[in-house]
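Incident log, structure service

09:12 report received: a user says their structure output differs between two submissions of the same chain.
09:20 pulled the input from the user's history:
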Amino acid sequence: MYVETERLVIRPWRYDEAARMLDILSRVEVAKWLGDGEPVLMTDLDEAHQRIDSWTARSVVPPLGLWAIEVATTGEVAGTVLLVVLPNAEDGEVEIGWHLHPDSWGNGYATEAARAVLGHGFEAGLPEIFAVTHLANEPSQNVCRKIGMTHLGTTDKWYDEPSELYRITADEWRARVTR
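09:34 re-ran on a clean worker, output below:
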């Protein structure tokens, strides 16, 4: 996966970026929105290297994967954008997600990266893509709305804790893109 947008490059994480990954995923203000329960903080560079290996392995079957969001003008990684099968998915439901370093918040990078990844997923034939956010994660819910996702309410289908559920279909995406 390699996609360029107006300001970003969406591409695989590299080993030489493990310190940046550690800086992002060792922050409670980022990790608190990822997964269920108490935030799990990354603790060292070895763990970051292992995560890069894991994400690379999970990215070998297109259109799924977890990728770095690089700011084109600086080369710095702002965070991660992902397209993965939801945990405990009964029908292979796919989730889009993102998490960025706090120094990259408020620049529209999550929205821009998510739009690119939605296009990637739908061009590859996915019929629909979901987003699942923590109940109080208003910034991510705002991104969901900006990229055209419909709020479907609260669910406890895929995670242990209730989540806000958003969805966009391929037809809805195509209608937005051709306007």
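09:41 both user submissions now match this output. Likely a transient worker issue. Closing.
09:42 reviewer note: The chain has one domain: 3-177. The chain has a mean pLDDT of 95.
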